[in-house]
Amino acid sequence: MQVLKFKSDKVDTFLGSLFLVTAWASVLLLAALLLFLLLESWPLWSRVGVLSFISGQVWLPLSAVPQIGIAPMLVSTLWVAAGALVLAAPLGLACAAFLAEFAPAPLTAVMRPVLNLLTGIPSVVYGFLGAAVLVRFFEVSFDLPSGESLFAASLVLAIMVLPFIVANSEIALRSVLNDYRHTSLALGVSRPYYVMRILIPAARKGIIASMVLAFGRAAGETMAVLMMAGNTMFMPGSWFNQGEPLPALIALELGSASPGSLHYQALFAAGLVLLVLVILVNILLSSFLLPKGNEVKPF
Amino acid sequence: MKDVVIELKNFNSRYGKQEVLQNISLTFPHQTITAIIGPSGCGKTTLLRSINRSAELESGYSCTGDILLSGASMFNMNAYSVRRQVGMVFQTPVALPLSIRQNVLFAPRYYGLRQRALQDDLVENCLRKVALWEEVKDRLHKPASQLSGGQKQRLAIARVLAVKPRVLLLDEPCSSLDPASTERVEETIRGLAAELCIVIVTHNLAQARRLANETAFMLNGQLIETGPTENIFSSPKHEKTRDFVTGLFG
Ligand SMILES: Nc1ncnc2c1ncn2[C@@H]1O[C@H](COP(=O)(O)OP(=O)(O)OP(=O)(O)O)[C@@H](O)[C@H]1O
Ligand SMILES: [Mg+2]
C-alpha cells in the first residue's frame, strides 16, 4: 500500500505541474506578444506620446513632417465591433435559447452541425459575399455612390460572430441544472417565463463570456472589414459613414512599410492598441457584468 | 366521507416502450394525508408527476386512462392551471437561483401579482405556514441558495403554497434531511393537512405511519393495496404488502 500511495502521489504532482505549466505557458504567450509589439513600436511611443497617438486625427506617417494619430481608426474599430455585437447578441441569445429549450431534438440535430460549419467559413468568403451582395444592395436601393460603410461591415461581422455566440451561449444554457426547469414548470408557469426569469440569468456568466469572445473576434477581424468598411481615414461621424478599422489599416499598410521606419513602428503600435483594447473589454465586461460573490439580482 | 379531490381511473403510463404505471385506480380525499410506499423504481415519482401533469413534458411519455380533479378530467383542463392547483415538491430540495422572497413570488408574479403590499403579505403568510418565517425574515433578499437543506425544502413547499393549490404532492421530501429538519417538515405537513389534500411518497415507513391517514402500496407499477395506514401496517391483506412493511424486501 505504501508503495502504491507513493506512486500515485508522484503522478499527481506530475499532472499538477503539467497543468500549471500549460496554464502559465498561455499567460506567457500573451505577455510575449505584448512585449514583442511594445519593443517593435517602442521608439514611436517616446517620440509621439501615448495620448497624441491615440487621440490624433491625422495619419500621415510618410510626409516630411509625419503626423501619426489613430483616433479615426480606433473609433471605426469600436463602431464596427460594438455594432456587430449589438446586432448579433440578441439574435444569438434568442437562437441559443431556442436550441437549448424549445427546439425539438431532430431540429437541433440538424442545426448544430450547420452552425459549426458556419464558424469554419473563411472570412474572405464572407467579405466577398458582403461586397458583392450587401454593398451592391445599399448602392442600388439607397442610391448611394458607394455602399461601403461601417454598418455594412458590422452586418457581415454580426453574421460571422453569430455562430460563436449561439454555440457558446447554448452550452451555458444547457449547463443550468435541470432541477430548475422541473421545479419551475411544475408550478404551472410557462416555458418562456422560466427561460427569462431563471434560465438566462442562471447562465449569464457563460453568455457574457460568449459575447466577450465575439467582440474580440469582431474587433480583430480583418478581411471582411477591409472589403466592406470603405477604408477612408476620416473620423466616422456615425455608424453609416465609411471608416478604416485598425486591422484593415495594418493589413493594408504593413507590406509597404520598410522595417524599422516610423511608419512600421506606428503600425506595430496600432496593433498593440488593438490588442490592449480587446483585453480591456474582456476585463471590463467580466468584472462589471458578472455578479460579485453569489448575490442575487433584485427584480 | 371527505370529498375526493383526485381520482385516478385505470391510469397507465409509459416512457417510450417501457410501461411504468399499470391500471392504477386510486382516490385522494380532501384534508387527508395519503402516503405512497413501495420499492425504488416502482413508479412513485412518475405517479406524482403524472398527477401534476409535468411528466408529459418528458420526451417519450404517454398515458391512458383518466385522472379527475374535483370530478372533472384534468386532461380536459389547461395544463398550466392543473399544475398550479396540484403543487409538487421534489425529492432534492431545490432553491431557484433567486432571493428567498423571489422564490416564493416566482409563480404568483407569473399569475399577475404586482402590488407590493400583497406580495409582502403573501411571502409572510406562506413562510409562516411552513414555519420558516422566523428563521429568514431578516434576510428575505439574500440568495435562497444559502439556506440549509431542510430550510430549502420548506421554502419549496412555501413556493408551491404561494399559488394556493388544492393538492400538495411531496416526493420524498425528507430523504436528504437530518432528523431535526425532518421533524420540522413533518410538522409543517401535518399543519397543512387541515386545508389541503396531501400525497407523500416516502421510503421511510415509520414516517408514513406517523404522518399518513391513508397508505397505498405500489409494486412494479401496480397498486397492490390501499387503505387506512393502521390497516396497511398491522393487518395487510396482501402477502407482498406484509413482506414489504415488515422489511423483508424493498
Ligand atoms: N424521464 C424518464 N425517461 C425514461 N424513463 C423514466 C423517466 N423517469 C423515470 N423513468 C423510469 O420509470 C420507472 C419508474 O421511475 P420512478 O422515478 O417513477 O420510480 P420511483 O418509484 O420514484 O423510484 P425511487 O423510489 O427510486 O424514487 C423507472 O424504471 C425509471 O427508469
Ligand atoms: Mg422517486
Biggest sheet features of chain B: 6 strands, mixed
Strand tally of chain A is 2
What is the number of helical segments of chain B per DSSP (H or I, 4+ residues)?
10
Residue windows where pLDDT falls under 50 for at least 5 positions of chain B: none
Portion of residues in helices of chain A? over 70%
List keywords for this structure.
heterodimer; A: about 300 residues; mainly alpha; MetI-like fold; 2 strands; globular; disordered C terminus; B: about 250 residues; alpha/beta; Rossmann fold; 6-stranded mixed beta sheet; binds adenosine-5'-triphosphate; binds magnesium ion
Secondary structure layout plus pairing:
The complex is a heterodimer of chains A (299) and B (250).
Chain A: H1 2-48, H2 50-55, E1 59-60, E2 67-68, H3 71-102, H4 105-119, H5 123-142, H6 150-174, H7 178-186, H8 191-202, H9 204-220, H10 223-228, H11 246-253, H12 262-288
Antiparallel strand pairs in A: 1-2
Helix pairs in contact in A: 1-12, 3-6, 3-9, 4-6, 5-6, 6-9, 7-8, 9-12, 11-12
Chain B: E1 4-15, E2 18-29, E3 33-37, H1 44-51, E4 61-69, E5 72-73, H2 79-85, E6 86-89, H3 100-110, H4 116-129, H5 133-136, H6 149-161, E7 167-171, H7 179-192, E8 197-201, H8 205-211, E9 214-219, E10 222-228, H9 229-234, H10 239-245
Parallel strand pairs in B: 3-8, 3-9, 6-7, 7-8
Antiparallel strand pairs in B: 1-2, 1-4, 4-5, 9-10
Helix pairs in contact in B: 3-6, 4-6, 6-7
Bound molecules: adenosine-5'-triphosphate and magnesium ion (MG).
The site of adenosine-5'-triphosphate has 10 residues of chain B, from helix 1.
